[in-house]
Every structure is written in structure tokens, then in C-alpha cells.
Amino acid sequence: MHLNPYGEEVVNLAADLANRRPATADELAERCRTAGLVLEAPVTPDDLDRAHDALEAWEKVVDATDEDERAELLNRMLEASAAHPRMTNHADTGWHLHYREDRQPLGALLFQLISVGTALHLAGRGMHRLRRCAVTECATIFADTSRTGRQRYCSQRCANRDAVRRHRARSTGRGD
After folding, report:
1. Using one digit for the tens of pLDDT, what is the confidence trace for 116-129?
2. Taking the alpha carbons of 79, 30, 13, 8 in that order, is the dihedral positive or negative?
3. Could you tell me the pTM of the whole model?
4. What are the start-end ranges of the H helices in 42-97?
């Protein structure tokens, strides 16, 4: 499987890596492989550092307070990772489109994938579709891929927790 920068896979990978940062180059490689990314070279500590840089920049995009700020921060990421689109069959799995140079180290590849994938996700689905969970105690990042575009929680567990909290607050407010 190839990560499709038009789809949600790369944004979900970014959220997964940001929510639980890989501690080692081997962990980064394994999690990228599990997500379906084809690795073309051994993963190094430099790749891990570059991936962390990409995730730090990306979290600023997530936490932007308005659409203009979000676009500006994402444009900076795109500028830093600019490459022209190209057709490739690098893994002999069929021709497909990449927005990067071939045979990039994983750290650079992730920066490019996360930048382009996030831009395409937000432009295609809406600038508000990347956020942190609405539960105060939860800082989990997620990409809203729901049909309606109104997802507020990272998981059903957090949605249920917040519903119970609101119910108890109403019950307490009535003096029950």
C-alpha cells in the first residue's frame, strides 16, 4: 500500500506520531511500515530528529487559532519541503504520484508527506478538520474525516466521558 497524499492516511499517521512520539529510529520505521509507508533506506537517528521537527511544525498548524494562521503555518511547511510532483514506480507496485524527490531519507519524506497531505486534507475537507480532542484532559490530535465535519472528540470513549460529565453537571445544577 502507498500512502496517498490525497487521502486521510498521511494525516492520520501524523496524528499517531504526534500523539505518541517515536523514541527511536527503529520505532519510527516500524510505525511507518505499519501505516503502509514503503521505506527505501535504513532509518537513522537523523531521520528521527527530522521527523520530530516535522511533528513540531505540524502541531503548530493543529493548534492555530484561525484559518489564516493555519494556512500561513502550513505554507511555511510546504515551502520547506517543496518538490515538484512526479510519477514513480519505486517499489514495483504500479505507477503513482509523489510530491517529493525519489529515495529521500525517512525524516525528509515524512516532512514532505505530512505537509502535502495536510494541505490536501484541509483544502479538500475544510480548514477546521484538524484539531485536538474537546475533552479538557485529553490533548489527542485527530483529523476529522467524518461525513458531517463536526467531530469534536478523538474517540467514542472521550465523547462518552464528556456526555456523562455534562449530564452530571445538569443533574447537580437542578439540585438532584
Report:
1. 999 999 999 999 99
2. positive
3. 0.85
4. 45-62, 67-80
